[in-house]
């Protein structure tokens, strides 16, 4: 039985990317994925320009089918104030990109498979034991020993085990996601619209848009099951002539929204990345990008560590490196929901002033843009 320097639990894009980043270290690293067949997840992800640079540096970006986001407009329904972010203002080719989860996963795993023994498929880790010098991860009767166990699987196993303490906040909203066709094709413009029913985002995806609409659970379920014409009527009432009318909807589904945060992303010989470390509300599209920065910072920490990767001094470096970016990203996303979720006219006026100020102050707008693109560290 091999004793690995690191075992990464979860072969989704974040876990697999960490595997790619560590593949050339000369250490023994394995990514363990429960599935043995390619995923078909049709969810759309928003990748920042900063995330693209990370993928490019690892040889993952080539041939990835993406739609560039060249501008983002933010507005509130029945209120003044609007701000427009553009890639041109930052002198970037794009602010970000929209990609189908399954396509991204396929391309990351394709690169990972080029490294001998880097991916072990068909094993679901169901329990683990933390010893003094290693962690033993079990899949039924099979087990894997590692100096360091990295959880990139959403974190359920680690916090149910009690190794990691979590803070959770459930939002009184579900996300309704769909593919929407408007009267005019998308041309790289994304839209964030804060409405009385909940925040609504339209992300360009080819000629169409990926819709993410946060709604009360009952409304989300009801809208998901509505006849298409009636659904489009409700959606167009929220767009309120702000955009061309929606004329087609496909692939509707709903899921609950919550904030979940590890009180610390490390424990004895354990590190968490991605949704295992923090799960965010989809507003502002920060969650996946935050997870990729987790993987990058953990990889950089391990690559420069000469000692056992599971030693507490090494893991503390990773935790310290991620503290500001993770905390600020969580705070920003959570407070956006609070600020824009209230129908109080005083708060609505304050929102309008804030949006108008961003529009009138290019220096502040560029600062916010860079934080959204590269993170809050430094």
End-to-end gap: 42 Å
Average residue-wise pLDDT: 91
Mind summarizing the main beta sheet?
8 strands, mixed
- Count of helices? 11
Class computed from helices, strands and strand pairing? alpha+beta
Work out the strand percent: 25-35%
> Quick one: overall form?
globular
User: What share of residues is helical?
Assistant: 25-40%
> Which ranges are low-confidence, i.e. pLDDT below 50, for 5 or more consecutive residues?
none
Tell me how many strands there are: 19
Q: Name the helix and strand elements from N-terminus to C-terminus, one letter apiece.
A: EHEEHEEEHEHEEEEHEEEEHHEEEEHHHH
Alpha carbon gyration radius = 21 Å
Features of this protein?
single chain; 378 residues; alpha+beta; eight-stranded mixed sheet; 11 helices
Could you walk me through the main structural features you see in this protein, from its secondary elements to its overall organization?
This protein is 37% helix and 32% strand. It has eleven helices and 19 strands. The protein has helices spanning 13-22, 49-57, 87-90, 101-113, 156-161, 217-225, 228-239, 287-303, 312-341, 345-360, 362-374; strands at residues 3-9, 29-33, 44-48, 67-69, 71-76, 82-86, 96-100, 119-121, 127-130, 135-139, 142-151, 166-182, 189-194, 199-205, 208-215, 246-262, 266-267, 270-272, 278-279. Strands 1, 2, 8, 9, 10, 11, 17 and 18 form an eight-stranded mixed beta sheet that branches. It has an eight-stranded mixed beta sheet with strand order 6-5-13-14-15-12-16-19, with helices on both faces. The longest helix has 30 residues, at 312-341. The chain is globular.
């Amino acid at each position: 039985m091999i004793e690995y320097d690191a075992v990464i639990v979860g072969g989704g894009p974040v876990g697999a990317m960490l595997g790619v980043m560590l593949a050339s270290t000369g250490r023994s690293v394995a990514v363990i994925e429960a599935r043995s067949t390619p995923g078909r997840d049709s969810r759309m992800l928003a990748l920042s320009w900063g995330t693209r640079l990370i993928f490019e540096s690892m040889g993952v970006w080539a041939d990835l089918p993406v739609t560039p986001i060249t501008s983002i407009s933010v507005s509130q329904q029945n209120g003044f104030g609007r701000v427009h972010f553009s890639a041109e203002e930052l002198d970037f080719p794009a602010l970000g990109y929209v990609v189908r989860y399954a396509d991204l996963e396929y391309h990351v795993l394709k690169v990972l498979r080029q490294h001998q023994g880097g991916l072990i498929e068909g094993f679901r880790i169901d329990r683990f034991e933390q010893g003094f010098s290693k962690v033993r991860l079990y899949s039924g009767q099979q087990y894997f020993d590692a100096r360091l166990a990295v959880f990139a699987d959403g974190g359920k196993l680690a916090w149910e085990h009690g190794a990691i303490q979590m803070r959770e906040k459930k939002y009184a909203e579900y996300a309704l996601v769909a593919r929407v066709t408007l009267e005019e094709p998308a041309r790289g413009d994304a839209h964030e619209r804060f409405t009385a029913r909940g925040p609504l985002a339209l992300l360009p995806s080819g000629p169409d848009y990926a819709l993410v609409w946060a709604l009360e659970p009952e409304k989300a379920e009801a809208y998901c099951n509505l006849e298409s014409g009636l659904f489009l009527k409700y959606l167009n009432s929220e767009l309120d002539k702000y955009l061309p009318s929606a004329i087609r909807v496909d692939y509707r589904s709903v899921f609950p929204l919550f904030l979940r945060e590890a009180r610390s992303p490390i424990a004895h010989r354990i590190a968490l990345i991605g949704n295992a470390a923090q799960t965010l509300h989809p507003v502002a599209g920060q969650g996946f990008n935050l997870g990729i920065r987790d993987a990058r910072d953990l990889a950089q920490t391990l690559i420069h560590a000469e000692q056992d990767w599971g030693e507490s001094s090494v893991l503390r470096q990773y935790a310290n490196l991620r503290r500001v970016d993770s905390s600020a990203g969580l705070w920003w996303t959570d407070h956006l929901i609070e600020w824009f979720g209230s129908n109080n006219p005083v708060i609505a006026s304050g929102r309008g002033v804030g949006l108008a100020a961003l529009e009138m102050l290019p220096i502040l707008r560029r600062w916010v843009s860079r934080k959204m693109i590269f993170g809050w560290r430094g």
